[in-house]
Specification:
0% strand; globular; mainly alpha
Length: 361
């Protein structure tokens, strides 16, 4: 039976929430968001990529050996990503049409963001590819990373078929994809700055995803190593401190983006064992487990929830610490509740459907 990496799930949930606070930092002066950790929380998107590569390789590397397996993999991944993605995108469409209809038209720059072209690039998961004339993040801005994720799934699935008879070459290909993707960023964008979004952010996704696949290979080599509780606790504390410090120093280190893939890979590998004091502590907090469950909903819902709070931000934000902190707490609660609802009524519903379809096929 496949292992469920519950501690890593709690990280995914908490970090999704931190990314939402990062977007809130531009609108609010509360000490909760105006600090170096939250201001650089966009870096955790790369943790998501690394974690995704690790989990996908762990669950699928050995079982995608035929066209039918590949189709099942694509079906599962599509129905995992698309239903909520579509629902939120349609909410944005209603928002754009409604705002224009009720006398609050967008500026010319904003219309570039909400164009027909960018609607379809977003809809079809290609908005992490740089298209001519598109110079903005558009619609549900965070969905660029879902595009990068979907493209990584496609590359991974096809690679598994191609290498189905050459299992020993998989690690080599993972490394090659990381190097080639990182090099392609230099060729296309003129530098090695990893943290791209619509400017070919799919390459950023490939770097992180296949770093995660490499992590899986390392984990399979070391997973039977018996870490003592004290030693595991020491390693967990050390790697988490390094990861937090690296994020806080994002202003200075982000130009060397691959540092974060290495730091996140090390952190992931240590916490995958779930044998230290911090692992036990994180697993003992119910809210962290819930955040882990609804992390995808938190991530996709954050921008539309921020837009809904736009009037409150314009009226009250930056007034004083008490009001600003209250707004942060309020939006956090609303985001959690909305995301819990979409998880139960959209995500879980389609996940159950795809499980039934897979069993019957």
């Amino acid at each position: 039976m496949k292992q469920r990496f519950e501690v890593l799930d709690t990280f995914r949930g908490f970090f999704s929430f931190l990314v939402a606070l990062f977007h809130l930092a531009n609108l609010n002066n509360s000490f909760l968001v105006q600090n170096m950790f939250v201001k650089n929380a966009y870096l955790f998107v790369d943790f998501f990529f690394v974690l995704s590569g690790f989990v996908i390789a762990y669950n699928y590397e050995a079982i995608i050996v035929s066209a039918k397996d590949l189709l099942n993999f694509f079906n599962k991944r599509f129905f995992r990503l698309f239903p909520l993605h579509l629902a939120v995108l349609l909410i944005f469409l209603v928002y754009v049409i409604g705002r224009n209809s009720f006398g609050h038209p967008f500026t010319e720059m904003q219309w570039h963001e909400y164009s027909k072209e960018t609607f379809f690039t977003t809809l079809f998961f290609v908005n992490s590819i740089k298209f001519p004339g598109i110079d903005y993040l558009s619609w549900n801005t965070v969905s660029w990373s879902i595009s990068a994720e979907a493209i990584s799934y496609c590359v991974f699935g096809i690679l598994m078929i191609v290498l189905s008879n050459y299992k020993k070459l998989k690690l080599l290909f993972y490394v090659c994809i990381v190097i080639l993707s990182y090099t392609a960023l230099k060729f296309l964008n003129g530098d090695f700055y990893l943290f791209q979004t619509f400017q070919n952010g799919f390459l950023r996704g490939l770097v992180g995803f296949f770093t995660g696949c490499i992590s899986f290979k390392i984990y399979m080599k070391i997973k039977d190593y018996k870490l003592s509780f004290n030693f595991a606790s020491l390693l967990e504390t050390g790697f988490l401190l390094v990861a937090v410090s690296a994020v806080c120093l994002g202003k200075y280190l982000s130009g060397y983006g691959f540092i974060y893939e290495i730091v996140f890979m090390g952190t992931l590998l240590i916490f995958a064992f779930e044998r230290g004091a911090l692992s036990k502590f994180f697993l003992s907090i119910p809210i962290l487990k819930k955040l882990g469950k609804i992390s995808y909903s938190i991530y996709l819902n954050q921008i539309i929830v921020l837009i809904l709070f736009d009037i409150a931000f314009k009226k009250f934000s930056r007034a004083n610490q008490f009001i600003d902190t209250g707004l942060v707490c309020a939006i956090s609660v609303v985001l959690f509740l909305v995301s819990w609802w979409t998880y139960k009524n959209i995500e879980r519903r389609f996940m159950r459907g795809i499980k039934k379809a897979t069993k019957s096929s």
